[in-house]
Design goal:
Helix content: 40-55%
Shape: globular
Radius of gyration: 25 Å
Structural class: alpha+beta
Number of strands: 14
Largest sheet: 6 strands, mixed
Number of helices: 10
Length: about 350
């Protein structure tokens, strides 16, 4: 056999081997990809929960397309752990967020659970507006009332929401291999110990303890809100990493048991791909209030000026026009504070 024929034969053989290997890889890989896709699609269909919210975008519709800024509410529900069952519960952790792909910034704002707020969709027995602690909106009528009440409090649209119970937080942190946080203070809770300025890698149970303590925090509920946002930020960081993908099945099972959201499968995939840069840059803010006692019941009262300031801060991130005081839903207490004489 001539050298040229021998060379041609070797090339032909290599091509044949390459196509055999490629066919083998595809025959294995495509079913795996399909199974993974099917599992994800099925899980997210099970956690999907549509809600109806009041129109705060004046008829316009937001689209997750890596150009529109979007907003969301995170509701941490106080059931599923510490011996509590799966009864309705209350939204102990309430975080409003905006994601702006243009400024590449995610803003997280904690709203205190005891905030005096209108219960949107709920009335007094004589048909008037009903005010209560914001945490009770979820107890009255689930995520829909909670989200609508948040919208009325700060007058910003909430496009999407994610609801998770305490056990869900534990399981998700475990499923992604733990999270890293730096403790802002020294404290212990449920036999878990943390030292100020020390960095910790937390499992799910430790993360829940880190986020929930408030009675010995000098800042009380505000201190707890800061730690809640640290935990949420750490989870977002980990989910955006490639490590989390390797354990997707465990994450999906956890989500099916403990999470509800109005995000669809396509929206979640578009969000993770198109808004990654913004989600990697998290800015935190707080909503500060003062004591309010009505008929012996404690509430946290947010002055209208502070609500307006927060509203316009979030509206700027959402690229919406600013509002004035008269655009807020004002209670009798608000009107008195604005015009005390």
């Amino acid at each position: 056999m001539s050298d040229s024929r021998r060379t041609a034969f070797k090339k032909k053989r290599k091509r044949r081997i390459f196509f055999i290997l490629l066919s083998g890889i595809l025959s294995i890989g495509i079913p795996i990809i399909w199974i993974t896709y099917s599992n994800v699609d099925s899980a997210l269909s099970n956690i999907h929960n549509s809600i109806e919210t009041n129109d705060k975008r004046e008829g316009s519709q937001v689209v997750i397309d890596a150009t529109d800024p979007i907003s969301f509410a995170f509701l941490g529900v106080d059931n599923g752990a510490y011996g509590r069952g799966t009864e309705s519960g209350r939204s102990d952790a309430i975080i409003v967020g905006t994601i702006n792909p243009t400024t590449k910034k995610t803003t997280l704002v904690s709203i205190p659970r005891d905030t005096y707020a209108l219960m949107e969709g709920y009335e007094t027995e004589w048909g008037g507006p009903f005010y209560d602690k914001l945490t009770h909106a979820y107890a009255f009528s689930g995520a829909e009332m909670a989200v609508n009440s948040i919208q009325e409090l700060v007058n910003v649209p909430i496009d999407y929401y994610v609801e998770i119970n305490m056990q869900g937080l534990v399981d998700i942190v475990n499923a992604i291999g733990g999270i890293e946080v730096t403790s802002p203070l020294t404290f212990d809770y449920e036999e878990h110990y943390f030292v100020e300025n020390e960095q910790y890698k937390l499992n799910g149970t430790e993360a829940l303890a880190f986020a929930r303590m408030r009675k010995t925090d000098p800042e009380g509920d505000f201190g707890r809100q800061k730690r809640e946002k640290l935990v949420i930020g750490a989870i977002i960081d980990k989910v955006l990493s490639f490590d989390s993908i390797m354990n997707y099945q465990s994450i999906l099972e956890t989500m099916e048991r403990n999470v509800k959201t109005n995000l669809t499968f396509d929206e979640i995939t578009d969000l993770l791909s198109g808004y990654r840069g913004a989600m990697e840059n998290i800015v935190q803010a707080n909503l500060i209030g003062e004591e309010l006692w009505i008929e012996g019941i404690y509430y946290l009262y947010i002055q209208p000026e502070d609500r307006l300031k927060l509203s316009n801060q979030l509206r700027e991130e959402l690229e919406l026009k600013s509002i004035e005081m008269e655009d807020l839903e004002l209670s009798d207490t608000d009107l008195y504070n604005l015009n005390p004489y």
